[in-house]
Design a protein that fits this description.
Blueprint: E1 2-4, E2 10-12, H1 21-25, H2 32-54, E3 64-69, H3 73-90, E4 94-98, H4 99-111, E5 117-122, E6 127-134, E7 137-143, H5 149-159, H6 166-174, H7 199-211, H8 217-246, E8 257-261, H9 268-280, E9 284-286, H10 297-309
Parallel strand pairs: 3-4, 5-8, 8-9
Antiparallel strand pairs: 1-2, 5-6, 6-7
The protein binds 5'-O-[(R)-(carboxyoxy)(hydroxy)phosphoryl]adenosine and zinc ion.
Residues 123-125, 150, 153-154, 165-168, 171, 262-264, 266-267, 294-295 line the site of 5'-O-[(R)-(carboxyoxy)(hydroxy)phosphoryl]adenosine (KG4).
């Protein structure tokens, strides 16, 4: 739950997060049916806990927001129906939130940062660079032509026998590793278009591990460190490309913010690399605190609050959308499995 003060600055009243990794661990990945069932069993407890921690009664809430896409349809339906039921029962407005938009607006909640800004959105399903013109105004400047970055972390972890979620496991294992030991590819480096590709890197990791099997803990650490180094070089190169191209789009030349968000934004090595590229190109660097990088209720509530403050709401007939691009007009990128 979030609220705003008289100046419009947001703050968090409660942020109850329930992860399901334990339920999926046995299967080595998220099982849609289990995810949907887990939503039905825990949502009412989460809502009760969020209200209790915030010391707020449901009747005192201004509006109710629920994620309505993109993502796995089962969990989306349950979350959105629950939000709509609460809205119907209380007579409050309902807001159907694009979870990517919630990532894109989190820095408004944490840093009080308004658009425009350049944003790198890196999660389990998406890897994009956006120009955020305004709340609701998103221009996609780059996307991945195959895997998302979080997906590459998760697949690398799985391959090396590290636990879910893969990103934090790879980051932890890499701390003691040698990032120069394995010469992994830097996909798309130097390419004129700013898009991403991670499928080849994932395959190179598999080949590196197979070539020295059976692998020790030291080998795992070196592979993870080498993987992260390759990721950072690639991402920095892609972000630099965009930073150069959009300098002129900021109304005030002394104020050019760069934002990173999404689950992978929690990665400290990547954050440090992005601080560097922002400095080089004269951008200020902004990232949510680690606890607000991965999916959470506060960011959804804040996206709802931002839209509510602009007089927007969605009817109870608002659909859930497994696919929901932030920039519907973006030209398609060519690649094996392009994510919108
Ligand atoms: O935004 P998010 O919580 O959910 C999606 O929208 O997908 O992002 C989850 C992704 C997962 O792939 C997870 O492995 C990755 O973010 N992630 C990380 C780290 N923490 C989470 N990747 C790299 N380093 C981390 N510390
Ligand atoms: Zn996310």
């Amino acid at each position: 739950m979030v609220a705003r003060d008289a100046d419009g600055r947001g703050y968090i009243l409660s942020n109850v997060v329930r992860s399901q990794f334990k339920q999926h661990e046995l299967y080595g990945g998220v099982v849609p049916e289990i995810a949907a069932r887990a939503h039905t069993t825990c949502l009412d407890h989460i809502i009760a806990a969020a209200l209790a921690q915030a010391h707020v009664k449901l009747a005192d809430v201004d509006a109710i927001a629920a994620t309505s896409g993109p993502g796995l349809i089962g969990g989306l339906i349950i979350g959105a129906i629950t939000g709509k039921a609460l809205a119907l029962a209380t007579g409050k407005p309902f807001l159907a939130i694009n979870h990517l938009e919630a990532h894109a607006l989190t820095c408004g909640l944490t840093d009080g940062l308004p658009p425009p800004y350049v944003m790198l959105l890196v999660s389990g399903g998406h890897t994009q660079i956006l120009f955020v013109e305004d709340v609701g105004g998103y221009r996609r400047l780059a996307t991945t032509i195959d895997d998302a970055l979080g997906e590459a972390f998760d697949k690398t972890a799985k391959l090396l026998g590290l636990p879910m979620p893969g990103g934090p496991s790879v980051e932890a294992a890499a701390i003691d590793g040698d990032p120069r030991r394995f010469k992994l590819p830097r996909p798309m480096l130097g390419r004129a278009d700013p898009n991403f590709s991670f499928a080849g890197l994932k395959t190179a990791v598999r080949h590196a591990a197979e070539a020295i099997a059976p692998i020790s803990d030291d080998d795992v650490a070196d592979i993870c460190a080498s993987f992260q180094a390759a990721v950072c070089d690639t991402v920095v190169d892609r972000v630099a490309q965009v930073m150069r191209a959009v300098v002129h789009r900021f109304p005030d030349d002394r104020h050019r913010p760069f934002v990173v968000a999404g689950g992978v934004a929690a990665n400290q090595v990547l954050r440090a690399a992005l601080v560097g590229v922002a400095e080089t190109f004269g951008y200020s660097f902004h990232a949510p605190p680690l606890s607000l990088c991965s999916d959470n209720g506060a960011m959804i509530a804040w996206a709802g609050a931002e839209r509510h403050a602009r007089g927007q709401s969605d009817g109870l007939q608002a659909p859930v959308r497994p696919r929901w691009p932030l920039d519907a007009d973006a030209a398609p990128a060519k690649g094996a499995g392009v994510k919108a």
